[in-house]
Amino acid sequence: MKLDLTNVASYDYDLPPGQIAQYPQSPRDESRLLILHRATGKIEHRKFRDLPEYLDSKDLLVANDTKVMRARLVGNRLLSKDSEEPVLGGKIEMLLLERRTDLETGGGFYWEGAFHSSRKQIPGFRFSIPKRSGGTLIGEIVKGSRDSPSGTIVAKFLEDPLASDAGELPLPHYIEKPTGDEEANYQTVYAKELGSAAAPTAGLHFTHSVLDDLRSKGVEFTTVTLHVGLGTFRPVKTESILDHVMHAERYSVEEPVAQKITNHRKSGGRIVCVGTTSVRTLESIYDPLKKTYAPGSGGTSIFIYPGSKEPVSFDRLITNFHLPRSTLLMLVSAFAGRDLTLLAYREAVEKGYRFFSYGDAMLIL
After folding, report:
1. CA of 291: how far to CAs of 19, 88, 258, 311, in Å?
2. Are 35 and 48 in contact (CB under 8 A)?
3. pLDDT tens for residues 133-164?
4. Is beta strand 316-320 parallel, antiparallel or unpaired with respect to 361-364?
């Protein structure tokens, strides 16, 4: 029976819970690195610090320089409206995704985000978030989840939630016991542009030492920006992946960066994407007919999976091991082939690799 590559079950695999990484490797470049050769199917097992052995002056690394926001707000529904003593209801949680400056015509700070509560998320729903320094951050839903195809809401705050000392770094739900060092651990060493609701995790393995070793071999390095949001980590809940709706994520590529990538590729060099977010950025700005990369900024909801379109904007990929049935696993499968990708995943499971955000990495050549 022919495998249906549009069925989400085709991207499933068995993973023992004990291999879900709960903390980062220290130092970062001590994480393991599985080398997957697409042409032959050969698999090697190394350390991430060995990455420079596989790259040379023909390679240009393109990484995502987004920086994770303190985007997780945890508090309670606010039942009282005018009382000096607030009356609190059930627990709520909001994940800030994007500031909606287009709505800020009458004052206040408007943010779109994912919202969880036991009550309906409708306009007028008010909530309170305690600040670490004392006091509270008050928010009110102005656009409910029913008004959004992706189920997000828009909330209004009287002060900027990012500057309010109320937010936390949004670690993935499967990390059960945060270490307290997330401000350092859950950012790449080259993070610069604040705006992500999650880290571009393939970049977490890089150290300044590895970057120096790469430069000494003539490997070039540049960055694009894609602010990670629902498009990257929202699970596929439909049986057919064709029915999955991707949430748009904001990207930005400066003109000198786009020109550098274009010139490098046209001169016969290889483009090495650091992570799936870099892939989604380059695939969104690449013109395969002109073989050029366009500078600019915007939103991308591109969904890359086997049979959709062959990724053509890059030549090599550094990536983490992703969740079963995820759009990230589908993207990797589109580049390396679904069968070869899952073969590598099975071997990684057998060899005891660590999976997901704080887990080990794979280099696909």
Report:
1. 41, 57, 11, 13
2. no
3. 889 999 999 999 888 877 899 999 999 999 99
4. antiparallel
DSSP assignment letter at 234: P
CATH architecture of residue range(s) 72-163: Beta Barrel (2.40)
| Cα 268 from Cα 110, distance rounded (Å) | 46
Which of 45-59, 80-94, 112-126, 130-144 shows the lowest per-residue confidence on average (mean pLDDT)?
80-94
Assessment of whether the complete model's pTM goes beyond 0.90: yes
Task: Kindly list the domain boundaries of the chain, sorted by start residue.
Answer: 8-68+180-364, 72-163
Category of 248 on φ-ψ map: left (φ > 0), alpha (ψ -120 to 50) or beta: beta
Query: Which runs of E-coded beta strand occur in 79-233?
Result: 88-99, 109-117, 126-130, 136-143, 153-157, 193-196, 220-226
Q: How is domain 8-68+180-364 classified at the CATH fold level? A: QueA-like (3.40.1780)
d(CA 131, CA 75) in angstroms, rounded, equals 10
**Helix or strand or coil: residue 64?**
strand
- Check if the beta carbon of residue 328 is closer than 8 Å to that of residue 340: no
